Write the structure tokens for this entry.
Amino acid sequence: ELVMTQSPATLSVSPGERATLSCRASQNVYGSLAWYQHKPGQAPRLLIYGASIRATDVPARFSGSGSGTEYTLTISSLQSEDFATYYCQQYDQRPLFGQGTKVEI
Amino acid sequence: EVQLVESGGGLVQPGKSLRLSCAGSGFRFEDYAMDWVRQAPGKGLEWVSGISWNSGNIGYADSVKGRFTISRDNAKNIVYLQMDSLRTEDTAFYYCGRGRDSGYDLVAHWGQGTLVTVSS
């Protein structure tokens, strides 16, 4: 059974700092990996798909990388509007989300 | 502009049924897969179900298989989620999503969600 594990569960950073979020799949998902941003009271937003392709209108400070079972979302310089919970999701098999990483001040 | 509007949420007793609807506009509905994703209170996102553009490919999470049924009406630009034998653990915000293309895999656009509360 495929399992998606995100780390850390919570990431405390300051505006302007770099944030690195990790996502590990228990099996190879062959780059079929997406990242979403979710703020309280709002709809989630697709940021990255295909492990590294930015979705439409996503700022360049968001970047994705990785392959196989290990993936990373990097926010190069955190802005105030970036504080949110981030989820990875694999879609090589039946879609499955990780448990999320909350990015807080 | 892509718009997705969910409806049909509310309070329901355990064991009862509820049907959610999601109306899509601003895009050619029949060309895209559609999904339902939920978030229980204090929990993360959980993919619930997906349906391809022509209903030829449908999938469910194990937690809802056999109880929930997804369907779509391309003439009306609506996707449905029929939820039967509801349990308290089905309490969540339910989001409708549009896929990237014809097959369900990731959610490119999201609705604002509708709250389903299962309680006696």
